[in-house]
Amino acid sequence: MSTSKFTRGRTAKRLLAAGLGVVVMALAVPAAASAQPSPTIPGLPGVPLPQIPGLTVPTPPQAPETTPEPAPEPVKPAEPAPPVKTDTGWVALADDATHELTVWHEGKIVRKMPISMGSNENPTPNGTYYTKEKYRDMYMDSSTYGVPIDSPGGYRTYVEHAIRMSWDGIFIHAAPWSVEQQGNTNVSHGCINVSPENGQWVYENFPEGTPIVVQGTIGGQYIPGS
C-alpha cells in the first residue's frame, strides 16, 4: 500500500469519528434541555427565559407571616346601682313589673328572688320602707288593721321568717302557699311573699333599718312611718 493511500484512509476515519461526535452532541443537547424546566420571567407566566449558564431566577418576595390579634372580649353591661342609700350595707328593690326582689350588698347585686305582692284588692303601696321587727314565726291577723277574721277578706295565718316593713301590717315573709304565683302574679294582702328558702335568707341577712323599695304597683304612695 502506498503512503498516499494510507494517509487518505486515516483521514476518512477521523472525519467519520468527528461526524459521529457531532451527531451525539446534537442529540444530547435537547435531552438535557428537557430535563430542566426553563425559568420564566416573574410576572409573565409562560414566557421562558433563555438557558444561560449561571443564571439564577429571583424568587418573588413573600408577605411576612402575621399573627391575628385576639378578638376583644365582650363588654359586660354595668349592673344597676342600688335605688337608695343605706346605712346597713343592704338594699332591696321589689319591682312589680318583673315580680322580682333584687338585693344589693355593699353596692353589688348578691341575690334575686321571685315575689308576689298585694293583689289588686289589697295592693302594696310604692315607696321606701325600712325593716323593723323580726319574727321567727308569728300569726298574721287581719283584725290588727280593722278587718275581722270572719269577714270577707279576713284572715289569721301562721307565717315564718317575717320582717316588719311598716307599722300598719306590711311584712316580707316566707309564704309556701304562694310559691307558684311568686314571680308572675300578686296574690297577697299587701305583704311581700317569698319562698321559704328566700324568706329564711332575708331573715338571716337583713339588719334592722335596711331599706326595701317598692315600685310599679297600683297601690299609690307609701307614707313613711305609717
Fold topology:
Elements: H1 3-35, E1 90-95, E2 100-105, E3 108-114, E4 127-130, E5 134-141, E6 156-164, E7 171-174, E8 192-194, H2 196-205, E9 211-215
Parallel strand pairs: 1-9, 7-8
Antiparallel strand pairs: 1-2, 2-3, 4-9, 5-6, 6-7
**CATH domain class name of the largest domain:** Mainly Beta
The largest pleated sheet is described as: 5 strands, mixed
CATH superfamily (homologous) name of the largest domain: L,D-transpeptidase catalytic domain-like
User: Biggest sheet, strands in spatial order?
Assistant: 3-2-1-9-4
| Rg calc | 49 Å
Query: Low-confidence runs (pLDDT<50, min 5 residues)?
Result: 26-35
What amount of the residues lies in strands? 15-25%
Overall morphology:
rod-shaped
Class computed from helices, strands and strand pairing = alpha+beta
Number of extended strands: 9
Task: Provide the CATH architecture of the largest domain.
Answer: Beta Barrel
Give the mean pLDDT: 83
End-to-end CA span: 156 Å
- Structural domain count: 2
Order of helices and strands: HEEEEEEEEHE
What fold name stands as the CATH topology of the largest domain? L,D-transpeptidase catalytic domain-like
Question: What is the share of helical residues?
Answer: 10-25%
Q: Number of helical segments?
A: 2
